[in-house]
Amino acid sequence: MEAVQGLSEALPTAQVAGSPGVPPVSGVLSVADVSRSLSSVPVAADGPGMIDQLRELEDLKSLAAAKQARIAVAFDLSQRREQAAAGVPAKEQGAGVGAEIALARRESPARSGRLLGLAKALGTEMPRALAALESGELNEWRATLIVRETACLSAEDRCAVDEELAADAGTLAGAGDRAIIAAVRAAAYRRDPHSVAKRASHAVNDRTVTLRPAPDTMARLTALLPVAQGVAVYAALTRHADTARSNGDERSRGAVMADQLVENITGTPGGVSSIEVQLVMTDRTLFQGDSEPARLAGYGIVPAHWARQTVLGEETDTAEPTTWLRRLYTTPGTGELLAMDSKARIFPPGLRRFLQVRDDTCRTPYCDAPIRHHDHIIPWHQDGPTTSHNGQGLCEACNHTKETPGWTARTLPGPRHTVELQTPTGHTYHSTAPPPPGTGTPSRRREKRPKHLRQAKARKCARLRHSLAA
């Protein structure tokens, strides 16, 4: 416990020595020194001591977050100065800073942009909130809430809210997320009610629909709507579910609502009338009932039985689903998807589809955003070929970042497609395409199944072969 306290006292005065561009300074504590010291702290011998350690380590995490914020602001300033000296136009200065911070923090570029905005707001406009973060009174998430709820205010009003929150010691002490949001909103509204109301009126422009994977081959379809529309949609689905269940429908209330939502949007009871199955699977999974999982493009890993049922149409309620199966083959041994090439500057549809399936999501490390751009790793204007080996899938933001001066990329030899990304500060990061199903999987002896299960599996495989042949 004393060791943890010592680290907490030492960290604010520590300099980031030993990192690229910062020479080690004799006698100055580095972040690496702190890390080594922390790893040597033993677990307390009794319950009260363990709880004390947990609390002190939580304070240390908040202190580290505050230090990261200060470093991020300093790094942004230094990069802008370098870019200005290099003649970069003022409106383009700062490009790529958030992306490099994202790689260093192992975060997505989108989240890193929010973290950099948080650091700037705390460092320049809300010093008391930053002090609360350093002391452990706030954690990084709750500091983010304070900054987010004051984003519509001027710098002067944001400073005033910062002072108001700090004046009452009980505002943040013991407060949860909702309490902090309520206190900050009230303070912001008192300072500038017009800006708060204007922000709310403009929020309607942020309405959107998103899709995220969920466990057990499910997905979360989320709609951000104006409150009146959201309530109206939910009320209509609720009324339909109540009516259906009162008429004897045995599905759960939530299941009825979900099914009706799908039917209302797609116009088809099951939601699917014809599909092109972008499934990457082994032939053993498809035809021999193997248990090796498959990968569904745009979703992720799915169980083998679900993949077979989807190809057979058993996962839909449609009477005669039309299923298109796009076959994708891998190189024996390595699992590398077979290559395609083209002489065109723009990737042709088939090659774009190939990159989409091979890479699955944006290839920038820690970014799992959907692929929006099909990028030449070595740019086309530098004689980079339009091939699968020189191609990668990127989100829009990462593709623009890659074109910023100082960023370079190249492919590396290996069993699977690998890209090395180098940032303007000289740091390198590697990105390897996800392994196709069955890659490196040793052959397994299939357990003996009961005869009736083997016969049922054989009938399903026969139906599948017949449908594909047709």
Automatic annotation (TrEMBL):
- Pfam families named in the record: DUF222 (PF02720), HNH (PF01844)
Biased segments, Polar residues type: 420-431
Q: Which GO terms describe its molecular function?
A: endonuclease activity
Q: Where is this region: Disordered?
A: 1-22, 406-470
| Residues in the signal sequence | none
Origin species: Pseudarthrobacter scleromae
The answer to keyword Hydrolase applying to this record is yes
- Composition bias of kind Basic residues appears in 443-470
Which parts of the sequence belong to the HNH nuclease domain?
A: 350-400
CDD domains, per the entry: HNHc
Query: By its UniProt entry, which InterPro entries does this protein fall under?
Result: DUF222 (IPR003870), HNH (IPR002711), HNH_nuc (IPR003615)
Q: Which UniProt keywords apply?
A: Endonuclease, Hydrolase, Nuclease
Supply the name of the protein. HNH endonuclease
Q: So what family is this one in?
A: Belongs to the Rv1128c/1148c/1588c/1702c/1945/3466 family.
